[in-house]
């Protein structure tokens, strides 16, 4: 049976083979000494790259994400995708929230946290193990992060949902205000519309979601999301001012024995933190500028105060 011909409207994915010669009929005259034309070899047609993708190719399918909290009013919560929980119903009686956040930082986790009790709820986005965006029913940012901590300490169960890193990055720009959408070749962020949302990574559509805003707007993602710091009411030590004692100044002087001892005990990170305190930076400011976890600085600061290299300064002093 003669095989069906290749479809002319779709290029073949197979490697072109040398054309087969037809069988010689029995009545063919004897061959002459005339040289046959040179075989040019197989010819490959120039086909655009996109033409090689079959209609059913997975690479052409843009996933549609289902919203986890479709009826939520905070913008961040509205666009969080539905994914399986990696931790469900964590209790404050079982684990301190600061210890849990330290664990997420140590493993470089990507995802979001959700705590709810009664009609109160808070949502926190985690990127590279750092809290970078937060929302509650009444606030966003640092205040919403504080609300998550308060809810958890009041007995609200906490759940954690793992996200792909690029989705966590896209969502890190979602705050309380949408901006005018301007698609550039490197745009990363969320484009929200009355008919649905589009997730962009470096100018490419990577996902859509049937979650909407009543108007069109964009939430551009920062190049590198900044860490949220707990508000002063919950982490007053992080916003305080600390000065160096004479011993602390010696610890920064490379020619002293105190410096050598301090460097051996606390390393380069301890020296950098001590220098920041001498420059009147609060621990919270230093954490944001140096991209270190605030909860890693608290025990270090307590050690500085205990050993007498730093002292707390009262306002106005």
Question: How is this structure best described in words?
Answer:
- Residues 19-28 have a biased composition (Pro residues).
- Residues 1-16 have a biased composition (Basic and acidic residues).
- Residues 1-45 are annotated as: Disordered.
- The protein has 317 residues and is α+β, with helices and mostly antiparallel strands.
- It folds into two domains: 75-220, no CATH class; 236-313, no CATH class.
- Helices cover 27% and strands 20% of the residues.
- The protein has eight helices and eleven strands.
- It has helices at residues 75-78, 97-107, 141-153, 165-171, 246-251, 257-278, 283-290, 294-307, and strands at 85-90, 111-117, 120-127, 130-136, 158-162, 189-193, 196-201, 204-209, 217-220, 241-244, 310-313.
- The chain has a five-stranded antiparallel β-sheet with strand order 1-5-2-3-4. Strands 8-7-6-9 form a four-stranded antiparallel β-sheet.
- Helix 7 (283-290) crosses helix 8.
- It starts with 74 loop residues before the first helix and ends with a strand.
Q: Which descriptors apply to this entry?
A:
317 residues, alpha+beta, five-stranded antiparallel β-sheet, disordered N terminus
Which percent band covers the strand fraction?
15-25%
Order of helices and strands: HEHEEEHEHEEEEEHHHHE
Strand order of the largest sheet: 1-5-2-3-4
Whole-number radius of gyration?
31 Å
- What distance lies between the first and last C-alpha atoms, to the nearest angstrom? 98 Å
What's the mean pLDDT score? Answer: 81
The percentage helix is 25-40%
Overall spatial form: elongated
* Total number of helices: 8
**Structural category:** alpha+beta
């Amino acid at each position: 049976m003669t095989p069906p011909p290749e479809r002319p409207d779709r290029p073949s994915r197979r490697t072109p083979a040398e054309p087969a010669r037809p069988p010689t009929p029995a009545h063919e005259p004897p061959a002459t000494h005339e040289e046959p034309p040179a075989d040019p070899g197989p010819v490959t047609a120039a086909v655009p790259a996109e033409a090689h993708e079959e209609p059913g190719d997975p690479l052409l399918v843009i996933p549609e994400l289902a919203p986890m909290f479709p009826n939520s009013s905070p913008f961040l919560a509205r666009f969080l995708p539905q994914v399986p929980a990696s931790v469900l119903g964590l209790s404050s009686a079982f684990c301190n929230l600061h210890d849990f956040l330290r664990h997420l930082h140590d493993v470089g986790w990507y995802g979001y946290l959700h705590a709810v009790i009664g009609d109160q709820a808070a949502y926190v986005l985690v990127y590279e193990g750092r809290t970078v965006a937060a929302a509650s029913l009444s606030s966003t940012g640092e205040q919403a992060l504080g609300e998550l901590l308060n809810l958890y300490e009041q007995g609200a169960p906490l759940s954690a949902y793992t996200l792909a890193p690029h989705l966590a990055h896209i969502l890190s720009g979602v705050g309380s205000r949408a901006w005018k959408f301007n698609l550039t070749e490197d745009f990363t962020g969320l484009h929200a519309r009355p008919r649905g949302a589009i997730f962009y990574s470096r100018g490419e559509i990577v996902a859509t979601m049937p979650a909407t805003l009543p108007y069109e707007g964009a939430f551009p993602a920062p190049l590198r999301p900044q860490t949220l710091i707990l508000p002063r009411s919950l982490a007053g030590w992080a916003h305080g001012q600390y000065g160096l004692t004479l011993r602390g100044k010696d610890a920064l002087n490379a020619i002293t024995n105190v410096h050598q001892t301090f460097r051996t005990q606390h390393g380069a990170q301890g020296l950098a933190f001590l220098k920041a305190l001498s420059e009147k930076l609060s621990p919270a400011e230093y954490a944001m500028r140096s991209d270190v976890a605030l909860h890693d600085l608290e025990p270090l600061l307590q050690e500085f105060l205990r050993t007498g290299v730093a002292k707390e300064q009262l306002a106005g002093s």
